[in-house]
């Protein structure tokens, strides 16, 4: 009987990992099934573009996985039973596994403030971005859009909407200072872009609740809006927390350096669902970059554990932030080993072209996860020791 590997989620981490496993494990010994709620691969890094009215190319997972031997199951995961090694999906069907790779990612943290889940839009998923797109399309000239948050998603969403719809009044409210983590040059560039796009910024403004017609700050200040966009942080689905897996207070699964669950070593985790300490001694942030590094380590560990081969050690760095400011402007802020912003940052059209190139190559790399490496499909090992070799 083949060893059953089930991958939950086909975002950046799940799709890459599944492809890497299919390329490196022998089909006679292993069966790989990917479970995903949507039939298409969602380029989450482009969801703010989708919301702003831009059309993105569809990328069906069947095409991405064509020829790999990967079985695709379109279904929404409702629960995981790690004791009996089963996954239950929304229609009640159960999928059995021998090895589980959990990459269900994250969504907008809309439950941290009253009314956000009921009244706010977000861009953390393709369906959510499309709902916001429909709402924005219904707004006439001088319609008001309030974006809540001060980090990458909020900045990218506000600038994209303002550039695509200059007839709208776009405001951004953040509990701290906008781009406060950026170096001085990058932050000046950010505010130049905000001024150019006529975005009104409300700093040091903590939102207490979201209402149907806007939001109210802690100090009682009311912000009227025809569309309120919540971009103030991410949260992971509660599925892991309701299983027997060891999780952090925020619901992320606690893993060792090789991306194994600390409570259930037959469960591996990658992407935003994983709580892992990076090379700088701090937890890796929820980001596409972290998804790439953790998925490389998780797939390498699974191959090693199941075939008895040495497990290569993948670096888990945090190198910086790449922020789009519309289609022709961006910032790439590098950080040092302590995650502090360096004084230098790539800015303007050059930074935008670099980010566009990265976004363009991402879908291709997901289809070719081990490009340049020999396609050796390893057989299952009877004895599977956990060994590590640094590279």
From TrEMBL:
<dbReference type="InterPro" id="IPR023753">
    <property type="entry name" value="FAD/NAD-binding_dom"/>
</dbReference>
<comment type="similarity">
    <text>Belongs to the NADH dehydrogenase family.</text>
</comment>
<dbReference type="GO" id="GO:0003955">
    <property type="term" value="F:NAD(P)H dehydrogenase (quinone) activity"/>
</dbReference>
<feature type="domain" description="FAD/NAD(P)-binding">
    <location>
        <begin position="4"/>
        <end position="282"/>
    </location>
</feature>
<dbReference type="Pfam" id="PF07992">
    <property type="entry name" value="Pyr_redox_2"/>
</dbReference>
<dbReference type="InterPro" id="IPR036188">
    <property type="entry name" value="FAD/NAD-bd_sf"/>
</dbReference>
<dbReference type="InterPro" id="IPR051169">
    <property type="entry name" value="NADH-Q_oxidoreductase"/>
</dbReference>
<keyword id="KW-0285">Flavoprotein</keyword>
<keyword id="KW-0274">FAD</keyword>
<dbReference type="GO" id="GO:0019646">
    <property type="term" value="P:aerobic electron transport chain"/>
</dbReference>
<protein>
    <submittedName>
        <fullName>NADH dehydrogenase FAD-containing subunit</fullName>
    </submittedName>
</protein>
<keyword id="KW-0560">Oxidoreductase</keyword>
